Fold this protein.
Amino acid sequence: QLQLVESGGGLVQPGGSLRLSCAASGFTLDAYAVGWFRLAPGKEREGISCINRSGVSTNYAVSVKDRFAISRDGAKNTVYLQMNNLKPEDTALYYCNARSTENYWGQGTQVTVAS
């Protein structure tokens, strides 16, 4: 079965860190550019980071730049999102997207930042 599965979300205090994982099964993630998105209640979906197939090129939304870092591990068929200095406004459902000629979406992992 072809799918993306996110993990690593949870409840964290402001200033804390989490590392999200986006694991692919049934296909080779290295053949795809991967993006992380988030959806918070009452807000539109926000694209927050992306990484190209080689991992050389990355991009970040202004809201997360210098706090989040995207990376990929081909051996584990996984893309990561390291999130540092988390803020309450980072609370959202985070999910990943792999895109090439096909387009895959995961189901998401919830991140809640609260004291």
